[in-house]
Amino acid sequence: MLINTATDPAFSWQETALCAQAGPEFFFPAPGSSTREAKQLCNACEGRQACLEYALDNDERFGVWGGLSEKERERLRRVGRDRA
Q: Is 42 annotated as a binding residue?
């Protein structure tokens, strides 16, 4: 979900985010479906790191954010962002 960057400049990375060009089903696939394509798009996006930080800071539990799946973000939370 994109946030209005005019009211919050901390989210300016969303203006150029590649995810805005794909539908939500791309980043929120059905259980058991592949996340490979979403991750590839994320890895090509200049806002990837900011997106990942947003997901970690806001405890996003579903979908691909910043190139990581739910399980990958949970693993990152467990070991700590600096050590991952």
A: yes
